Fold these 4 entries.
Entry 1:
Amino acid sequence: MSIPKSEYLSNTWADGIFANRVLFITGGAGTIGSAQTRALVHLGANACIIGRNVEKTETAAKEIAKVRNGARVIGIGNVDVRNFDSLKAAADRCAKELGSIDYVIAGAAGNFISPISGLSPNAFKVVIDIDTLGTFNTIKATIPHLITSAAANRTPTNTAPSRLLAVSATFHYTGMPLQAHVSAAKAAVDSLIASVSLEYGPLGIAANCIAPGAIAGTEGMERLASSLQEQGEMERGVPTGRWGRVRDIADATVFLCSEAGSYVSGTTLIVDGAGWRRQGGQ
Ligand code: HXC
């Protein structure tokens, strides 16, 4: 059964706003990544989703393509964001088969719950490698394509038509027990995106992070709050009184990729119902 639109997109946006545009996304078969991709494809984009698992990635691509007649969605599996060469080959293939890369989302992430005492140096490094180095590799592999696209699509009012988004987190604003590795990795992602916005803004690329809060149904949340009771307590702690939905992140993604978001660059859009302000028991 196909996923209803209301699960991944609000009624805010006009169909076709992303016609002839192409999204390249790592982690595109994941819970948040697939909603982001669905939303952009629904609104006219074609997409290439990248993942480690071949079957999961190809199946997700086929499912997502069903949201719009004529949509082209390619799934490229067996790509680990820690391996630059495989990412570069995937980006080049995406641009060749779909015509361009106009939007990039660095969404692949690695996470597990562990106190610092339980983290081996390699465990810490693995998360830095997936989240931070993986985001760098994604940027490096796709930026030539984003520059080409920006040069072709710049207008006086939309001077940065190419968009690069990284999926970050809010843990590093306060520090987070059991997530020291992820918190450190995402702080570096924020910093990297800030530098990208400065170096590549003049070439027509707006670069931002999206920092999701507690999003229902994600692997990360299931691991962080294992029991239903814990989940209920966390939900009550969010100032706006509910957990986030993947749709909240997809709508934020649409905004940042749309013409409406063309002057937003070098920042982090926090989509968490103000949850981070109470994070850590404040
Ligand atoms: C302590 C652990 C551990 C754990 C693994 N390690 N799990 N240490 N506690 N629970 C250690 C291992 O012992 C090893 O160290 C090192 O980490 C690498 O483990 P591998 O299994 O060899 O790594 P790899 O196969 O590369 O897998 C990477 C992974 C895995 C991160 C460990 O979970 C993964 O592939 N995850 C991708 C999917 C995922 O995590 N999605 C959730 C993203 S959610 P030693 O010293 O023994 O070699 C997210 C959102 C965050 O990021 C925000 C949440 C709200």
Entry 2:
Amino acid sequence: MNEYDTHTIQSELVAGGHQLVESPADANLVILNTCAIRGKPVEKVNSLLGELRKERRSGRDLTIALMGCLAQLEEGQELARRFGVDILIGPGAITDIVPAIRSLDEGAETFSSLDFQPGLDTHLTPAPSSLSGFLTIMRGCNHHCTYCIVPSTRGPEVSRPVEIIMREVEAMRDAGVQEIYLLGQNVNSYGLGDPGLPSFAELLRLVASSGIPRVKFTTSHPMNFSSDIVDAIAETQNICNYIHLPVQSGSNRVLRRMAREYRRDRYLAIVDEIRAKIDDVVISTDIIVGFPGESDDDFEATLSLYDEAQFDHAFTFIYSARPGTPSHRHFEDMPREIKTERLKRLIERQKAWAQTSNQRFLDREVRVLFKDMARDGDYVVGHSDQNHTVLVPKEQVLRLGLYRVRVDHVTPHTLYGHVAGSRPEAIPLMMAS
Ligand code: SAH
Ligand code: SF4
């Protein structure tokens, strides 16, 4: 989400006559587009702001803007005051960046905008000059998970109009984009409660019908993850067989305390349906360890759910008590050592299943998008339809695009392979390098 917002901010700046520079050292204005989901990113902003203030004190003429989720919170506003931030803009008002600069140029001391502006839904972001593009289909969140700051920072759910989404899709397709990532906190709530909008399953089919070779989406919420979505993925060739479906915990007691609206059995039933209907599907999840009050038995329930679901991949987090959330207000955090010990055990489980899962692809062909020449030693890095990181010897990829790659070797994190056949499946000439 933040990356898409950053792109929108960049487009606004360029359209407003400003110039982007490669390095913050060359900038007159530095924008920190922040995340506030856990304590760690907040600490990082704190130290970056400290460095910027130091430079300013040593004479550099610099305007500092704090944008994104942290700007929306009292915690961020306090940082802004402490470090002398000039521009404070929340995630619901990102298109205010150009007016903010103008206002400072006209003599204002500071600029602040923290509203959720309706115009953001219809704002058209120019297609990126990349083979892969993000596209926000909805903003905000109507859930109230007790650990999460997002509903406070991003406001209630708003689905963007389908015509605007499709215009963006077509603009990206015409610019040669090979992969579109549909984004939202809970994409499968798209259109809920608005009879004028398609359902998420219908939207998926519509976006896929544009002819974009790859359509991916994130994040799905187990609530409202209905069979029509599974069918749309199973029946549509260019909707990728990759589903990120955060479970957070395998214990019903913890799920209740987190205020997640499903229980273990329902979650596992969705996984069963997905695996039964979609060939070669890859399922990933998010798990939080050390939620307040999580007992040994609760944690064991998470491990056993992991084994039942046989996740192909998981993003694992230590619970971070975020000021302003119900769990921070009402529950006591547990000792760090217990949390890190549990995280270690969970990561071991994750690696073992990832290795098993990746072995399924050994000696087979996968379709890989190389969207830039990112290198890892002697290899170029790309991503498969199912979102695997795939490494191929660098001399085999001379132009960007989609390739068929034969997998020779796997680790829990990576598929290693070689290009099968000498020609990429599709070379968008406009962007070939
Ligand atoms: N809307 C998505 C998740 C968005 S946040 C969903 O509900 O599935 C991404 C992930 O960050 C969450 O899935 C959760 O695992 C993690 N997360 C959110 N708040 C957290 C906190 N306070 N501490 C640790 N992890 C957290
Ligand atoms: Fe946060 Fe829950 Fe909303 Fe996801 S669904 S953004 S975890 S409140």
Entry 3:
Amino acid sequence: MDIKTAEFTLSAPRVSMCPNDTKPEYAFIGRSNVGKSSLINMLSRNKKLAKTSSTPGKTLLINHFLINREWYLVDLPGYGYAKRSKTEVAKLDQMIRGYILEREQLVNVFVLVDIRLEPQKIDLEFINWLGLSSIPFAIIFTKADKLSEGKVKASVDAYVRKMLETWEEMPPYFVTSSEKARGRDEVLDYIDQINKS
Ligand code: GTP
Ligand code: MG
């Protein structure tokens, strides 16, 4: 599958203000600065589609991008940014979890994790919450260009081991780099398979 058109639809502060449409949606979640918006731009081959920044906390709303006029990529705010007030953290948490639990069109969540870090408690907790909430998800390792191939493999192996401490099987996962467009075909094929099922 390839992406022929990618159009920004709207930014919503809560799930009730998301597009009035029933097309399938694929959402991207993870810690602030992990590379969610960059990945959406890489997949759509449009560096200006989603706003990115080297400073964490760039995306603050639920952003819908219509792909091939058939399905949506959804960019969410990140979690776990230390320099936020308690009220702000609670507001964003409510926005993210409300969208994930209530949006019926949401068919899959991609949880992004930075491949350079050992498994982080905040991500593992979020993944467990998705599992408990019966939300289908896959894991995307980001920024693979920042490690050698040997370290990429070691990092993925460590993550799989950690996941298997609590999960019976490893969910689908992808190694990506938005800089190098690595993992693009694999992620798009995965989406395509779900769209056709
Ligand atoms: P928030 O919206 O703040 O939650 O962040 P985000 O997860 O959307 O991250 P964003 O895409 O804005 O990227 C954060 C920083 O990481 C930017 O400086 C990107 O250029 C950089 N970055 C993202 N993906 C990659 C990648 O694959 N490789 C490298 N080297 N840098 C990346
Ligand atoms: Mg972002």
Entry 4:
Amino acid sequence: MLIMTETRSTCPYCGVGCGVIIQSDGKQITGVRGDPDHPANFGRLCSKGSTLHLTASSVVTGQTRLLQPLQRLQRHGPTQQISWDHALDLAAQRFARTITQHGPDAVGFYISGQLLTEDYYVFNKLVKGLIGTNNIDSNSRLCMSSAVAGYKQALGMDAPPSCYDDIGHADTIFIVGSNTAYAHPILFRRIEDARKTNPALKIIVVDPRKTDTADIADVYLPILPGTDVMLFNGMLHLMLWEGWVDQAFMAAHTSGFDALKTTVRDATPELVAQICGISQADLLQAARLFAGLDTRDDSNFIASSADTTRATGRKPTLSLYCQGLSQSSSGSAKNAALINLHLATGQIGKPGAGPFSLTGQPNAMGGREVGGMANLLSGHRDLGNPVHRREVAALWGVPEVPSQPGKTAVELFQAAADGEIKALWIACTNPAQSMPDQATVRRALERVEFVVVQEAFASTATCAYADLLLPATTWGEKEGTVTNSERRISRVRAAIRPNGEARHDWHIATHFAQRLEALLPPRMPIPETGSRTLFPYTNPESIWNEHRESTRGRDLDITGMSYAMLEQAPQQWPLKAGEQQGQARLYEDAVFPTPDGKARFVSTVYRPVAEPRSARYPFSLTTGRLRDQWHGMSRTGTLGRLFGHASEPVVALHPQDLAKLALQPGELVHVTSKQGSIMLPVQASAEVAVNQAFIAMHWGEEFLSGISATGQRLAGVNALTTSVFCPDSKQPEFKHSAVKILKADLP
Ligand code: SF4
């Protein structure tokens, strides 16, 4: 007789981090429902989360899972099944040989914000501690590195200071570059709820595209793509001119404003309106609402004066922002310019007030915490800091962590295309579809001598380039932790045993590392027993305990957060040893983790997009998410009902542009950039402004084929996107490519 069980876990899709209860019969996942006790969602799930059980069973029955280790003797040739021992021995031998012959910087690791924190931790230690290179980066580089840079530059640490409850406390919500309705649906429902309970709430939405999120705005600012810094500087200009800044807060708790003055003085309303393509009246209204001083109608203000923020005479403003700011060649400046507004008005560290970046992936935050990126180290330490490198080396028991910066995502694949990276390990991500400028990425994957792909799904575009395919467990089978956008750490739990021969990501990394240890010269004296390993892990909890010890004394100290505590309830960091509860909101004392304790204004100069529209490429292309699909559709693409909302890839254009190009809806067009070309149907959409185009990011090989400028076969919208990146964060500019659109000549 089958016994039905229920297992508490976390949704594997977006950074909202909703709690789920998985129902299973011991062999299969049979159902899923929202966890009513989880503080991220209180029982609610969106279309993706509520169908997790259906995708979980269809990916197995549909044979889309990778279930055995497979080897290819030649690139793109047939695969043959091998044992785990053979696979891990082969991988260790090939990596050891490459490191011995060409040095540690000849290998690279590209991992994922879908991995659990424990997986991330082992990979990071393996690469920086054992191999001795910093060539490890994550697909989180594509979604949050500009937010990291913005927080660190302005506030001194990488930490969203707000929490989800702040949505209910805010009187103005400033949503920038985020289609929250699609990308973070459960948070969007909280915003809708807040509107019902707080009639004074005003919502400002800034987005070139009039999305479903923009539909609920009181003030909608359809800025031209890439002009956010000019908008924020212009708002600050008006706040200064009108006397809406909080001089007392600025004097006591900030520094660096003088360096910003000239830039802000020059951002006059006339100039801002012209560059951003908005009206001066809307600009003024946005600045006034953001400042929280409603000079037109004080009645609501007085009526809602309930908490400490309002008692100071200023209504609280919460900013929610995402890829529209970060996926940009000036992503860090955009993040910092927005934080400047919060510092100028004292809108931080109070209920309902603060800059709050929303993370795209379920565990991009956890990856930041363990330092699983090319420029970071464990416990929010910086690779560029020699003290931090020594601390991490001591924690790991290795002589040193190399000082040479590692290659970030775009740089890693560029180096591979140039022949510098000879062995590449890719875990839980699909760069052949998701990286910008696919032509370069696919050239890199062809050129690398040995490619390992550690993956749960057999059909990703990247799998076709693997010499060795290692089957990984996935949601429902894995144990560990993830951190959501509000710094809340939740347990991920297994409801069923791994399918096929799939193994956990931490386990694969650990057993590969142990083999590599035996082949490389020792990095520390071997004890007489000869049994010492840097990777003694037997379960995720043993990794977690080492990770939390690495945070002792750091800004994100989680030494008090044991698995036993997380079994009771998810917790927000920091949570030090001896404490019973994490911190919901940071900087309530207005003391910032900078040398002088003050937050820093960053001098943010507006720079246009890297590839402006031109006579040859007259459209601005932006990319983004659909409501019911996730990333490259490995999981959501297996379920028919999730295609009900959008059944095929289209390029959305304004009706005026269709008329100008003499196109009818549904006709096929070529969309072409300097990088490549794709062919797909055109759709008339009033959401998209004139001279702009939108294509969803999800569609891959089966749906949307393309070709590079040199005739190479490509797929998906990243055949078109540019790999130009922000100089500070190295995050690429997915949100703008210049393209031309021509009717397809069909026989
Ligand atoms: Fe999952 Fe995000 Fe939907 Fe929550 S909002 S159920 S985390 S996809």
